[in-house]
């Protein structure tokens, strides 16, 4: 901890001690600078210095009190032929805190009060001390110092407000990014399972009477997918609730391409005819790439199941080379454009896929083709390897 940070921490922990110490120091400095302090002016000088103790709680009121006290003290000293008390330091400190802690209107009022007080001090000085021109020349540095302290407080206030706005903007951006991430993950976790469940339920109803055994297997699959979906949903909710705790809920690993076969088998059981082709060593891809490829395939198959229905033919192709990863999911069963989302859709699925590909510096495309619908992503493969022996 630096000395400045230590002083700030002490000030925060013991504000009254710091206020009292500063008030005493200013009183000693003003007393030392007041040549021949008269009994008439001393009480008013100490009252002005004492007002410094309220610089944080009521800086504008403290400035008014200090200015009035010094003005009265100056007039009283002039009446008995003694020099006016030197209390400029107290005024400067209070002007700084008014600029720092109060609005622009109060700061302007404080500047006016300070200037009037300085003029009053000059008029209250003993006539024999300085000529009128010399008094004016002597006042210029005091006026300049008063303006400088007020402006310094205003500048620091503006800097702090700008920093607060930047922190608020950063917090809003972080919150928006986190909401987008949560929305994308919820969509990937729950949307796919619900589409599979809906398709399985429709198929189960069709074979319920003609093939009870097949219907039983279908409804068992619905139960399995439902339980897995509920488990994932509970995990996400548990994570969100524990976001502010010291020991957040443990996370299960994000899916990678080792679970791709299970994903394709689940969607096949829901009725899609999937041609699966993979070339290259998918499992040596970075985890971020594996998650992106898995989620793209999951979302594309979910869309094919939702819009194409049972019996739709889909070709899933993943090619890994040393330079890039190419993922394509071609829906060959649906009528071109029929029931398919437009490329510019605001739905979470296409947006989520595009965001994942963009985050990895890739190129994403989704749109209708002559045969149906195509989702294609090309992602740079930094440090990846290509192994023809793993093709399938």
From TrEMBL:
Tagged with keyword Transmembrane: yes
EC number(s) stated in the UniProt entry for this protein: 2.7.13.3
Enzyme class: transferase
Domain of life of the source: Bacteria
Protein name: histidine kinase
Keyword Repressor: no
Keyword set, alphabetical order: ATP-binding, Kinase, Membrane, Nucleotide-binding, Phosphoprotein, Transferase, Transmembrane, Transmembrane helix, Two-component regulatory system
Organism per entry: Microbacterium galbinum
Domain Signal transduction histidine kinase subgroup 3 dimerisation and phosphoacceptor intervals: 178-243
């Amino acid at each position: 901890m630096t000395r400045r940070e230590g002083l700030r921490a002490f000030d925060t922990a013991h504000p009254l001690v710091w206020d009292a110490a500063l008030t005493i120091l200013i009183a000693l400095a003003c007393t030392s600078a007041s040549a021949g302090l008269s009994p008439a002016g001393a009480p008013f000088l100490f009252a002005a210095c004492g007002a410094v103790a309220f610089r944080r709680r009521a800086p504008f009121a403290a400035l008014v009190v200090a200015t009035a006290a010094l003005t009265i003290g100056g007039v009283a000293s002039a009446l008995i032929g003694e020099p006016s008390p030197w209390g400029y330091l107290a005024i400067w400190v209070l002007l700084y805190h008014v600029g720092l802690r109060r609005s622009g209107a109060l700061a302007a009022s404080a500047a006016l009060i300070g200037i009037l007080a300085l003029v009053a001090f000059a008029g209250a000085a003993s006539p024999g001390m300085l000529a009128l021109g010399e008094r004016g020349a002597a006042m210029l540095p005091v006026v300049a110092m008063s303006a400088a302290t007020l402006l310094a407080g205003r500048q620091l206030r503006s800097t702090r407000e700008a920093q607060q706005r930047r922190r608020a903007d950063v917090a809003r951006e972080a919150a928006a990014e986190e909401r987008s991430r949560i929305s994308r993950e919820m969509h990937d976790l729950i949307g796919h399972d619900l589409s599979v469940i809906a398709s399985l339920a429709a198929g189960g109803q069709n074979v319920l009477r003609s093939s009870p055994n097949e219907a039983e297997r279908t409804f068992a699959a619905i139960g399995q997918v439902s339980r897995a979906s509920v488990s994932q949903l509970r995990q996400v909710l548990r994570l969100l609730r524990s976001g502010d705790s010291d020991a957040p809920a443990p996370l299960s690993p994000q899916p990678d391409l080792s679970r791709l076969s299970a994903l394709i088998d689940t969607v096949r059981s829901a009725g899609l005819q999937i041609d699966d082709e993979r070339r290259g060593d998918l499992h040596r891809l970075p985890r971020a790439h594996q998650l992106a490829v898995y989620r793209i395939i999951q979302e594309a198959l979910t869309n094919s199941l939702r819009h194409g229905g049972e019996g739709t033919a889909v070709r899933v192709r993943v090619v890994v080379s040393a330079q890039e990863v190419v993922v394509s999911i071609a829906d060959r069963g649906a009528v071109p454009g029929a029931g398919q989302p437009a490329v510019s859709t605001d739905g979470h699925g296409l947006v989520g896929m595009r965001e994942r590909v963009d985050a990895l510096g890739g190129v994403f495309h989704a749109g209708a083709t002559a045969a149906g619908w195509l989702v294609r992503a090309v992602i740079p493969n930094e440090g990846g390897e290509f192994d023809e022996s793993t093709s399938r």
